[in-house]
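User: Here's a protein and a ligand (magnesium ion). What would the complex look like?
Assistant: Let me lay out the input and then the predicted complex.
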Amino acid sequence: MCSILSNILQRYEKPEAVKIKNPERVEELIKNMAADGPGALQMITDFDMTLTRFHQDGEKCDTCHGILHSSSLMSEEFKKRSQDLFNKYYPIEIDHTMTVEEKIPYMLKWYEESHETLTTFPFEKKHLTEMVKTSRILFRDGAVEMLEALNEKQVPVMVFSAGVGDILEEVLRKFNSYHSNTKVVSNSMEFNDEGRLIGFKGPLIHMFNKNEKAIRQSQPKYFENLSHRGNVLLLGDSLGDVDMVEGVMEPGAVIKIGFLNTKIEERLESFMNSFDIVLIDDQSMDFINLILTHVLKLK
Ligand code: TMP
Ligand code: MG
């Protein structure tokens, strides 16, 4: 009998959108997480299309890179070049017939060409705030409340992204969600003394190397400092996101939740094999917030 899970599903608006390969196991994991409480928990979450919405009112929302690609502050030539790159490489990123190993060389090429394009055109640090303010980037419904509740209970949140750290930090600020419990691991822009973008610094994080090694390079002691927090809620929208949990010391109850935003039929099976819970075209954090109600003992 999965009583906690049934209770959550009853209170969730779209139970048919929830796919769970092994409900008994998930029930057990939620039970253990709740028994251990917030002091044993951490969250590791992807940013683009996970914390943020995939679409709203029939229109696709922005991603970190998308903000740059669509901003009125960027030239038409830059936008066209970036869009061409997206149209060429994104279908490869989500192609269910290719292996990750086959995809990686294309993804590296994408980042190389994308970063090269970005530094070819004038881009200034001072534009970041304005770009984010006028963008179509939106958090999923309930994401602000989720981050607030986690901060209140002092549960650490790692936002791990193959996007652009400078932009995602600005987005977190825009939604008043850059709390003290939050660490960002992502790609960092490098500006010269005049504030002009000259490249990216630090090791490249792409969608298929979001793993322990990348975290160690960016936040060397992160998981060591959290060694007493073996319970993890992991959120992602890409198969590469499940590796984000690799560095966790002494993992306990680890629940991996995947948002399946697009190409649903083709990718459902692989998502169900990789994530414990799959949410189909859900633009909210409602399901996660219902789990947290149990785990954080919220009213
Ligand atoms: P993430 O959601 O796993 O952090 O991955 C970042 C996303 O950014 C990934 O889906 C690819 C996308 N992307 C762009 O949209 N434009 C770009 O120029 C590059 C390099 C990546
Ligand atoms: Mg993503």
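Summary: Residues 14 and 282 are 8 Å apart (CA to CA).
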